[in-house]
Amino acid sequence: MKLNKRFIILLGLMLIFSMALVACRGEEGTAPKDDTTGEAKEEAQGEAADEPQYGGDLIYGQIGNPQVLNPMYSQDAASGNIEDLIFAGLMRTNEELEMVPHLGEPVEVSEDGLEHVYRFYKGVKWHDGEEVTADDVVFTFSIPLHEDYDGPRKSYFENLESVEKIDDYTVKFILKRPDAAWPVNAGWPLLPEHILGDVSVAELGEHTFNRDPIGAGPFKFDEWVEGQYVRLVAHEDYFEGRPYLDSITVKITGDTNAQVLQLQTGDIDMGVFPSEEFATVETFDHVKISQVLRYAYNFFGFNFRNEFFQDHKVRQAFAYAIDRQAIIDVTLEGYGEVAHGPVSPLSWAWTDDLTVYEYDPGKAKTLLAEAGWEPGPDGILVKDGQKFEIEILYNEESNARRTTAVIIQDQLAEIGIKATPKSLEWGAFVDTINPPRHEFDTIILSWNLGTDPNPYHIFHSGQIDEGLNYGSYVNEELDQLMEAVNLEMDEAKRTEKLHEIFKILSEDLPYVFLNYPMENVAYPINLHGFIHHPSVPFYKADDWWLEQ
Amino acid sequence: MTSYILRRLVMTIPILIGISILSFAIMYLAPGDPASMLIDPNIKPEDLERMSERLGLNDPPHVQYMKWVGHILQGDLGTSFIQRRPVNDIIMERLPNTLVLMIASSLFAIVLAIPFGVLSATRQYSVLDYSVTTFSFIGVATPNFWLGLMLLMIFSVQLGWFPSGGIHTINVPFSIWDRIHHLILPMIVLGSYDMASLMRYTRSSMLDVIRQDYIRTARAKGFRERTVIYKHGLRNAMIPVITIFGLMLPTFIGGSVVVETLFSWPGIGQLFINSVVQRDYPVIMALTMFSAVLVVIGNLLADIFYAIVDPRIEY
Fold first, then answer.
1. Contact state of A23 with B47 under an 8 Å Cβ cutoff
2. How far apart are CA A131 and CA A547, in angstroms?
3. Which residue of A194, A401, A529, B214 lies most exposed, with the fewest beta carbons within 10 A?
4. Residue A257 contacts B, CB cutoff 8 Å
5. What are phi and psi of B222, to 5 degrees?
6. Does A428 touch chain B if contact means CB atoms closer than 8 Å?
7. According to the model, what pLDDT value does residue A12 have?
8. Is the peptide bond preceding residue B163 cis, with omega within 30 degrees of 0?
């Protein structure tokens, strides 16, 4: 009798639990499908009959916690995104990822390319009502040139000799060497001289301004509650007109799961989510989804310190053996494009004149045989008594990279190579692949591309001992080309050189370039004017408006 | 009693020094440092070098440690490498959030655990006892993060009864009900394990006590059953339970790391995770020492309560 009772209670509890589980699962299958994938821009144009409306508050979910809101001292994307709303600079990127004038025009570049004169608009107001003048520009660009400056941006401006005020609305930058990529730096967000001018540069990094900033951007800083959110309100006097939204609150969600959950429950209105959650987010009927290629690529990199990989045929065999489409289908749910070189299709420097290695394990085997690798008794290739056994290193925080490593492991096994995936925590991972250690056979990693398409920092032999050339790749012809590109001021010749560089890299394979991933943004169905920019989350947020 | 407490406090000093040396050493030996966490082609090795210099990372470890001790003796926990402002400020902004969560969870645990533990002991082998026992087994065996995800799925996503994260609704004026609304799910998740185990301790301790001779004596004197159980029984049964509870205090910190991440709760658990990922040494050290102090206080409080509840104990 006693036993019976206990059994019944247990059974009851189990039932309750399993019912809860069923309930969770039911929803996913039955929820209506909502076909809203596509360009957000078209959407806004399609409903152009509706006049933009003022008002409304938007809550944007972000995983990272911002560090400091001062572009001279922050170094994380979480801070950078918010800074884009608060601050404005002379230049900014457009949808084609070109630098275009924002607050002012580059009116004159001298013959030798060393002097750049910028004129900017009158009547641009800081959030406190003061006018933006040449003094602010001179002040901002003098900070990284100052010997007491201790932020992370000094090298960005190492090519800047000085900056001079010509009149209240005109400044002149004097460079040390011609630099075709200068407009990128000229667009650096401006800081207010009338507030920070008296602060010594040594104290700037720890100044309270960095948590209570004043800029000239479309949104004004309102409140920062540590670990919770940063709230920004419309800047009434923004020089391009008051933003439509009353406020944007950037809420810190902490991790992907929380981000997607809060999107589902409406605790956040908008946010980026990973492709593996696409099927889930698609079922939410209060948001639309926008997808664009991210300005980035994923790659599988070789370490040339391992002599196996010094043989071009071996690297080619890897490129033939790895089914890149399969990796996209599994890790990105199909939302990505196969990559063949270190340039993004989004870039103005894009070319399709790249060497393409299609998936072909047969060819891979032939190439390995030509390179002298013979199958051993256990099926693993052997050359000079050495087995072809390697490690694939990745950082453990990334699910996508873990899956990629396992797929590559399988595909390499088919051609007789034994690959073992190995993961490290990010800090340890960086420490292991960085100089002076370079301790890996192969890595899986991604590069976010900069506005300047020259891959100098990644593949130049000068970047091995202290730089990002982790695989110690050396190619003298390429070195010279990459050095020449940024000295070349002629746009057409520069593009030609860049194309040559990309072609060589796609042929020579210091990496097997894997894919260009898509970025997914969910945003409210009544949000208009949103343009999904591949690298600026709050692109032209002053034009966003909510249908009330 | 006072001298006992003083003695105990003095004894904690070498313990804390030991803990600080150990955590400092582990941190120093762990791969990666805040300067090298960035992979940015525009940030040159010279920049990283300058950063290391500014943060004092180029000093030998014993010098770094002594500097840290020097500051901490003056009540200065240092400056965060990442946020570039005093660690004291950062922790003080977040500590109240964690304390609210901890206090709510412990109240939740105690308020449910003790009455049900007692009831289940006094009605041993009843349906109630079996339910409580089964429930507490499940509670002890359920991992925090799983329970949290389940509650979120059911009560937040499916039923929409509770918000899925954060500490209050944004763009809405302060209201105490809103705060409580946000607190309930994380409180249950953080408190459930301790509630379940406290329930079991209360039950078994109570079972021990009610079989004692003095309970029979009390009954024989003709006291009402309620008086016997709650006045004579419970007080004695609570002695081991209090000890256990004191030892549980620090587990709230550990648990809060998981719960705060799950519920986007901006407390020190979330801060700890962020700081470890970013190798923000001053914050990591401050939080490690904070937990260590909490363990010591937890033990001390347990001992003091012990004496209050059990007059036989003398120090």
1. no
2. 33
3. B214
4. yes
5. 95, 15
6. yes
7. 46
8. no
Task: Using an 8 Å CB-CB cutoff, list chain A residues near B131.
Answer: 9
Q: What is the dihedral of CA A395, A399, A401, A407, to 10 degrees?
A: 130
Angle at A188 between CA A186 and CA A190, to 5 degrees: 110
Measured CA to CA, the distance from residue B203 to residue B113 in angstroms comes to: 9
Q: Does residue B58 belong to the interface with chain A, where contact is any CB pair within 8 Å?
A: no
The confidence band for A174, taking pLDDT boundaries of 50, 70 and 90, is very high
Cα-trace Rg, chain A: 27
Q: Strand A386-387 vs strand A381-383: parallel, antiparallel, or unpaired? A: antiparallel
Range from A196-210, A233-247, B106-120, B234-248 carrying the lowest mean pLDDT: B234-248
The Cα–Cα gap between B107 and A205 comes to: 43
- Smallest CA–CA separation between B145 and chain A, in Å? 12
Residues 6 or more apart whose Cβ sits within 8 Å of residue A371: A311, A313, A314, A317, A383
Contacts of B42 in chain A (CB under 8 A): 153, 155-156, 450, 457
Q: Residue B297, class by beta-carbon neighbours within 10 Å (0-12 exposed, 13-18 middle, 19+ buried)?
A: middle
The tens digit of pLDDT for each residue in B86-125 reads 999 999 999 899 989 988 998 998 899 888 988 888 888 8
Contacts of B134 in chain A (CB under 8 A): 6, 9-10, 13
CA–CA dist A335, A281 (Å, integer): 14
Lookup: tokens for A243 = 């933003």
